[in-house]
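Figure 6 in text form: structure in, sequence out.
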C-alpha cells in the first residue's frame, strides 16, 4: 500500500509518500508546498496547493491519501484558511480518484509514537527512525505529513474496532471461546 500524507496549511503544506511492503515502510518522497508569495491572494495560494498536490500524485502514484483533520484554534480566521487549504488538497486527491482518510493530530501522534500527547520533536524522531531518514528535515510539516501517512497505514493494517456486544465479540472471535465441560443440572 502506498499512501500520500498531507499536513495542510495555507502558507506551507507538508506532504509525504510512504509505502508498506510486508512489515517494512519505505520512504518514496516528501517535501513542502510553499503557497505564499508576497501579497498573493488566497485563491492563488489554493491553486498552488491543488496543482502541487496533483503533481505529487502523478509522480508518486499513491493508492490512498490521508490528511490531518481540523483542530480547534483560538483564531477563527486561521481555521477558515486551514479549511480552504485542506479542501484544495482533498479535492486534488479526489479528482485523481484517490480515497482520502482524515485523522486527528492526537490519532496521528498515538499511532506513530504511542502517545497522543507526543511533541513535534518526538513525532519527528519516530518518523525518522521508522523511515530511516538520516537528515533532520527543516520543517516539521514534512515529518508531520509522513506521520499522517504512517498513521493511515498502521490503522489500515490493524484497525481497532471494538465489538458492541458479547455476541458480536463471540461471532468475530470463535477461536477465543472456551466451551465449558462442566455439567449443569
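Output sequence:
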Amino acid at each position: 500500500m502506498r499512501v500520500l500524507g498531507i499536513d495542510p496549511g495555507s502558507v506551507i503544506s507538508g506532504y509525504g509518500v510512504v509505502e508498506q511492503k510486508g512489515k517494512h515502510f519505505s520512504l518514496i518522497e516528501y517535501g513542502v508546498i510553499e503557497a505564499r508569495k508576497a501579497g498573493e491572494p488566497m485563491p492563488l495560494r489554493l491553486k498552488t496547493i491543488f496543482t502541487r498536490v496533483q503533481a505529487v500524485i502523478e509522480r508518486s502514484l499513491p493508492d490512498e491519501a490521508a490528511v490531518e483533520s481540523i483542530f480547534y484554534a483560538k483564531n477563527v480566521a486561521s481555521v477558515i484558511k486551514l479549511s480552504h487549504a485542506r479542501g484544495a488538497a482533498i479535492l486534488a486527491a479526489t479528482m485523481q480518484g484517490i480515497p482520502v482518510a482524515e485523522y486527528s493530530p492526537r490519532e496521528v501522534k498515538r499511532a506513530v509514537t504511542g502517545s497522543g500527547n507526543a511533541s513535534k520533536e518526538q513525532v519527528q524522531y519516530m518518523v525518522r527512525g521508522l523511515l530511516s531518514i538520516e537528515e533532520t528535515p527543516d520543517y516539521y510539516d514534512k515529518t508531520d505529513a509522513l506521520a499522517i501517512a504512517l498513521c493511515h497505514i498502521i490503522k489500515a493494517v490493524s484497525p481497532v474496532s471494538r465489538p458492541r456486544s458479547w455476541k458480536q465479540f463471540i461471532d468475530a472471535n470463535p477461536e477465543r471461546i472456551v466451551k465449558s465441560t462442566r455439567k449443569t443440572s
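Caption detail: The chain has a mean pLDDT of 88.
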